[in-house]
Amino acid sequence: MTKLNAQIPKGPIADKWTNHKNNIRLVSPANKRLIDVIVVGTGLAGGSAAATLAELGYNVKAFCFQDSPRRAHSIAAQGGINAAKNYQGDGDSVHRLFYDTVKGGDYRSREANVYRLAEVSANIIDQCVAQGVPFARDYGGLLDNRSFGGVLVSRTFYAKGQTGQQLLLGAYSAMNRQIGRGKIKMYSRHEMLDLVKVDGKARGIITRNLVTGEIERHAAHAVVIASGGYGNLFYLSTNAMGSNVTAAWKIHKQGAYFANPCFTQIHPTCIPVSGDHQSKLTLMSESLRNDGRIWVPKKKEDAKAIREGRLKPTDLTEDDRDYYLERRYPAFGNLVPRDVASRAAKERCDEGFGVNKTGEAVFLDFAAAIERYGKEKAHVKGLDENDNALVQKLGKQVIKAKYGNLFQMYEKIVDQNPYETPMMIYPAVHYTMGGVWVDYNLMTTVPGCFAIGEANFSDHGANRLGASALMQGLADGYFVLPYTIGDYLADDIRTGSISNDTPEFEKAETNVRAQIDAFINNKGTKTVDYFHRKLGKIIWNKCGMSRNKKGLEEAIAQVKALREEFYKDVFVPGTADSFNEPLAKALRVADFLELGELFAKDALERTESCGGHFREESQTPEGEALRDDKNFTFVSAWEYKGEPSKAKLHKEDLAYENIELKTRSYK
Amino acid sequence: MGVVLSSTILRKFAMASSGLFLMLFLLQHFAINITSVFSETIFNQFSHFMGTNAIVQFVLQPILILGVIFHFVMGFILDIQNRRARGTRYAVYKGRANASWVSRNMLISGGTVLAFLALHFYDFWVPEMNYKYFEFLPQNPDRYYEELVHKFEDLTRVILYVISFVFLALHLSHGFSSAFQSMGFNNKYTPVVKSLGKVYSIGIPAGFAFIAIFHFLNH
Amino acid sequence: MKLTLKIWRQENATAKGSMQTYFLKGVSPDMSFLEMMDVLNEQLMEQRIDPVAFDHDCREGICGSCSMFINGEAHGPDRLVTTCQLHMRKFKDGDTIHIEPFRAKPFPVIKDLVVDRTAFDRIQHAGGFVSVNTSGNTQDANATPIEKADADKAFDAATCIGCGACVASCKNASAMLFVSAKVSQYALLPQGQVEATDRVLNMVKQMDEEGFGNCTNTGACEVECPKGISLENIARMNREYLSANVKG
User: Fold this and answer.
1) 3-state secondary structure of C106
2) Looking at this predicted complex, what is its ipTM?
């Protein structure tokens, strides 16, 4: 076991980034024109990085598996983006955002990175507004904010329930400008299938054209991975169907360490599973917890009656309801962080208080908010505050203006009107804090290979706060990577263009072709989805919201066995040289089947509970997570050694110099 | 013509403006014709003025004819282009689910109006041109009413006219508000434009039909 | 539920396609339309028949990937939804469902129900942006207040997901609603004013070069748009374009 060095600059935390930028090596504009950079993934991180790198003068090749960069899954982020602007004058500051993020991450993130994130957060909002992103505004024409889980200020900027969409379209527009100028060459419907190293440095990738099946070689001076998270390991998640770990896993196999794979965020407010046919889960924005109250019936018999359809939730009196978050966490109430809210929901459902057919759902109720807003509106308009019908009508209008699209989405999926009856929600896999290990410059352990956005691990520790993913993606892409990559590329100004006609590319291409041919010729009996579903079940049941030693050991064995069965018995139809979705999926699932094992291994190793990682062996008498700072204040970074079971653990010790390590309390 | 045809939006602007121009003409045409219902003299006076005034005859009339030709030719060109833009046809296309029949079939309503125009020209315009500019017959300020009444003695003609007016009404019912949208007019007054369009598109053709039936019944 | 599915099958871009009939049992009304397609594909693969290719990704109505023309309508009979949000409860047991790709000359079929919509991207490359550099060193975000009504309208236009339902539904295969949504978003915000003239001219030019049809104001696009983008945007684009032409 070696200790990892994250290359964190010296000096006080508030000056680190500025000093670093002042001392970092630069590439002159004339030389940037001679340097090619590959960016894999075009979400918030990849899209913004590609645009900025191109604007700085680098020649960028951007890749995405979707048919257009605009469809990357960042588009589905709903609630908002944090920034320490303190427009509301409620005491927010860079330090407070930094503090909240480190605390929210349960003290498992890297201080210097988080501080930098908080520092550049304000720039993001300026940048996006300048690009024409239509954030929500108040009647004075200034930007509006709302509050998110785990914080006591309103610092979240939003565009109704479509913030991710608007920010991504902003980044996409910046890309479009550079594509129009010829500085970005866009490869859509392309999947990266391997990283090519020359003399130990990342010098290119092998891709498959998803339309023609063509295997292509792309060379560059540096490779940036911005391929997002690996939530689809669970099969059912709020990720898009195509979201995958392949790019990140391929670089892992080429030497990039994979950090904290077991740190997964289970989002508390998703639409519950309705049946075996379910292909994905839909998130209901955390912003709903601003106004929605979460509850289950106080009595088990009421819960049973609701499950069986004999009782309507609206028939229960206040006394018969258990607003368990408000009860357990009076200070933060319904706005506790995601990991806490999710576990609390699971706890109630496991105790038999679940409210849908499967017993795996709790209520998210807007009745109180409708009444409160209705009365307020009536008062403002000088109307009768005691006219119930009027109050209901006005209140619903306010709720509609705030969350209209989310309510509509819920109604379309569940076929119930959430204005009239409480929503049913249940936690679902949403985000992965773990990812490729990177240093302060966002470079992986493979020189010249960088990882940004959800694909890396650095900023969210063991739990991410709401509205911080968008912030991190754009911070990395617009403001961090474009600077730090210069430090590496400064050595490459005389290298000249990189040839893809070398033995290294040849070998990588041959390997990719061999893997594809193996799948096509396998002629097994079971579809790719069969294996993916099975993998998801193992991971959800044994490495989900709570984990224990026995389950994790079983998971490791089962995933391994499943992987072996997969290679023996998977059936992939069609040909290699055509549009073939099952083939593309097989290549992705193959990597999930390896990651799954490492995931369980990492969870087994970390015998403490922290953030989204809850080990049943490590909890307080009241059932709250119990951290073990003495033994686990480090990042687990795994080195690939031929197969997941042989992965070697490296530790990056986390030093908390500016924030005192404390038990996280939201009571 | 080249500039006008260069972009989709300019083409639709041209369709809209020629359409609006034709609607203005139609209003004027109606205003004169309706006088025939209550006063032979006034109708003859108006008709004589229109038929002999040099500006009307040698400036406005050619513009009108060009407008008509442009509107029709352009309509056909657009339709051909639009069909091409689809490429392979749908096996099932449920147009009625999202758009009115008239809006989808301006070619049919317009084509019918075109056929009607041929008949109408044959009935009135050709004899008129012949009278004035080929045979150089003497001016007769009182002949117009007689000619009008004479034409509508024939039941078949009246039926054909009435049917055509129905199609004209359909054509106008989409064309009126559509022209405003094409010219970029869509705001809080749009409901007013739409109501006005309804009044116009039903009122004018109904009025023309009334004139035809009136003279048929009164001859 | 039991269903008869008539689906457009086409091997690749150059092959000739045709409608094929499949029978499917055991469909639950709670399934989304795409989950029904998943079941069909599992069944086809069991029979060693090539599964039906279709575009899909987020399955929550925001990425704009899914693009099926169902029973003669883009995204099927429900309103304000994409195909992935359409649920089988909108159909009856025993129904016959026709499924075709979004059709337009500028959207060539890649395979089965998958079409190439990069024409939309090219329109955006022509001007769908504000030319501000991404350094973040711009003015403070609150330096220019924007009237809430305008900001809200700009947002409404900006919610377009670029799925192409407008083109698919329009009898003329016109892309005006898509292009106008982008033009409108920027036209309504002060940030977009500076380049407004060039933007609208360039984007319309590209739209025309791609071969989309002429708008005849049937309004089908607005009805079928899963995000309810308003026809007002088309009028605004017409205005912008005409005045841009006058300005030269």
Assistant:
1) coil
2) 0.98
